[in-house]
Amino acid sequence: MAVAVKHRAYRFRCYPTPAQAANLARTFGCIRLVYNKALDARTKAWYRRKERVGYVETSALLTKWKQRKDLDFLNDVSSVPLQQALRHLQKGFAHFFERRTAYPCFKRKRVLAGSAEYTKSAFAFRSGELKLAKHDAPLRIKWSRQLPPGAVPSTVTVSRDAAGRWFVSLLVAEDIPELPEQTEAIGVDAGITSLFTLSTGERVTNPRHERRDREKIKQRQKDLARKQRGSKNYRKAQVRLARAHARISDRRHDFLHKLTTRLVRENQVIAVEDLGVRGMLSNHALARAIADASWATFRRMLEYKTEWYGRTLVAVDRFLPSSKTCSACGTMKHAMPLGERTFTCAACGHSECRDVNAAKNILAAGLAVAACGDGVRPKRS
Description:
42% helix, 14 strands, 10 helices
């Protein structure tokens, strides 16, 4: 069985002391300030002087900022998270120049949420205790699962969500053994009524997590609207609303983790659609249901789990006419309205559920790509 060294992040709840929480909150604010000032400096340098400013130049600017009297509070926090913020900005510009993302934008001020990344020089991890720079005591962590034997984190990220919960993420290098090779392959068709339809005919019921708690969300939004902005009661109402959203997000992620793990364990090849979720969200009639389905998160989980365990994930072209093509003979219909839930082929008489037929076509296209690397984009003039 092949074993490969891969990086995996272990995320735990943590409970900092009041002094640690104050230091971390101050660190979050300094990170936001440094990131925004560096972004502003890079933008002005280009538009005013046509000068490219990179990480090295912004790192030198950070040294000068720390020497200013009005910014001397930057010395009260660890310098490593500030340097990491500049590296993240550099990565954002690299993705922008590769046309993968939009131009980096400024970080807005948040009351609770934030994160800080520490490298090896800014933390000590010994005997299961984690101590961060500028902290006088180890961070209290709820170890919900064990780290790999002998694992030493390369980076540590401390974060707090909008609901006020603290988390610590430890990135470790781990020998992850690949799963035994399987002969099964499966195609997955995404939907809303059935969250996913598999080429085996199995339908994964859409749990609709957001719809189940919609009334609670509405009530807490009303409570927030009645509070005076900026008051303590307004902050409390914000936290209550964030906790309701966090409950939905946690249930959704738990469901998708269990589903993706099962698919990866049972199948050697998994074929999915390369959906343009961002464009689909512009449909205001279906945007809420599409966001609740979280297809992008499903694919992201499949990507790293198949890489970990030696499986193959194939994303077929989004313009593949999977719903209009007969999975038995390959004849393609001219049109297939959404209201027509049963596919019937006029050439061979094959009749099947629309989603199952699409999943079989996705599987066939995915196997073609896995076998010979050929594209699955239909020919267009």
